[in-house]
């Protein structure tokens, strides 16, 4: 269970580095790096496609042999759509920070059949999901319907204060589209104002897994991130977030080995909210 809850490394450089081996799954990788002005970052996926998201700050970007120019343009995840780049396997992404930057690097296995691409802020689709206290606002960087990635699904979700972000509880452990899709997922939480908090629960029907962390933020950084490896039995999750945003990275895993997964749209299967196990109080 400790592998589900990742705490940041503060002080510059790599903040998070989640690999498939570390998470105990097969596909999704996620990294967050802080750059001071003038610092350089280079990433290249060997057999993996990358989506590099500018969470905050401005940087000069080189995408393969293409000079993309300056990307970024926002102070943080609550200040408009992000700029991102997509890189197929073997295509390097090089950033030189113009200002202090926070960069997220998302990765998954791919064959390399798609070209590199700049994803401008005005190309990021927006949609609102849910109603009432379930309302949240989604920024689709690489949604499940996008033809521009082989298997990565990357979105930012902004949740108004006091709302549920993934209610009702649902799971992603069966390939049974359109009712349910099989996914590996990471969640990277940011909070505004920084003294806010988020509650997230992850549990199985038999309660062999019951995780209920409170995500807070220190020194402008999340105190906790969550990654969900595949587990035996259905794994359910729900979230209550207070003025929060999250960067969600998923990978559809309808594939053998490192072959690309077919990208077909599917919605999570809603599950009834079960009572808490004896002796455990619900978070509300």
Cα end-to-end separation: 22 Å
- Sheet with most strands: 9 strands, antiparallel
Counting DSSP E segments of at least 2 residues, the number of strands comes to 25
Number of helices: 1
Low-confidence stretches: 223-243, 252-284
Rough outline: globular
Q: Please provide the ordered H/E string of secondary-structure elements.
A: EEHEEEEEEEEEEEEEEEEEEEEEEE
The proportion of residues forming helix, as a percent range, comes to under 10%
- Going by helix content, strand content and strand pairing, the class is mainly beta
Assembly state: single chain
Structure description:
Residues 223-243 and 252-284 have low confidence and may be disordered. The strands form 5 sheets. Strands 2, 3, 4, 5, 6, 7, 8, 9 and 10 form a 9-stranded antiparallel sheet that branches. The protein is mostly beta strands. It has one helix spanning 20-23, and strands at residues 5-6, 13-18, 29-35, 40-43, 48-63, 66-74, 84-87, 93-97, 101-109, 117-119, 125-129, 136-142, 152-159, 163-164, 170-171, 183-191, 198-204, 210-211, 214-215, 217-218, 221-222, 225-228, 235-241, 244-252, 269-270. A hairpin with a 2-residue loop joins strand 20 and strand 21. The protein contains 1 helix and 25 strands.
What's this model, at a glance?
The chain is mainly β. It has one helix and 25 strands.
């Amino acid at each position: 269970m400790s592998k589900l809850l990742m705490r940041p490394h503060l002080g510059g450089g790599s903040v998070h580095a989640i690999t498939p081996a570390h998470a105990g799954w097969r596909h999704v990788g996620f990294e967050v790096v802080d750059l001071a002005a003038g610092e350089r970052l280079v990433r290249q996926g060997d057999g993996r496609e990358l989506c590099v998201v500018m969470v905050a700050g401005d940087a000069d970007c080189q995408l393969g042999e293409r000079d993309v120019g300056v990307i970024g343009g926002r102070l943080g995840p609550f200040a408009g759509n992000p700029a991102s780049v997509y890189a197929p396997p073997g295509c390097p992404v090089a950033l030189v920070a113009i200002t202090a930057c926070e960069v997220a690097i998302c990765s998954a296995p791919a064959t390399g059949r798609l070209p590199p691409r700049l994803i401008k802020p005005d190309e990021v689709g927006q949609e609102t999901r849910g109603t009432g206290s379930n309302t949240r606002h989604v920024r689709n960087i690489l949604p499940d319907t996008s033809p521009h990635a082989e298997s990565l699904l990357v979105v930012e979700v902004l949740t108004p204060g006091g709302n549920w972000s993934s209610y009702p509880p649902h799971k992603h452990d069966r390939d049974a589209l359109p009712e349910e899709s099989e996914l590996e997922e990471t969640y990277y939480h940011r909070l505004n104002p920084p003294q806010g908090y988020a509650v997230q629960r992850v549990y199985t029907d038999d309660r062999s897994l019951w995780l209920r962390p409170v995500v807070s933020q220190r020194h402008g950084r999340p105190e906790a991130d969550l990654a969900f490896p595949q587990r035996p039995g259905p794994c359910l999750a729900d979230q209550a977030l207070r003025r929060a945003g999250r960067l969600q990275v998923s990978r559809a895993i309808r594939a053998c080995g490192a072959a690309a997964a077919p990208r077909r749209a599917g919605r999570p299967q809603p599950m009834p909210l079960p009572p808490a196990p004896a002796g455990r109080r619900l978070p509300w």
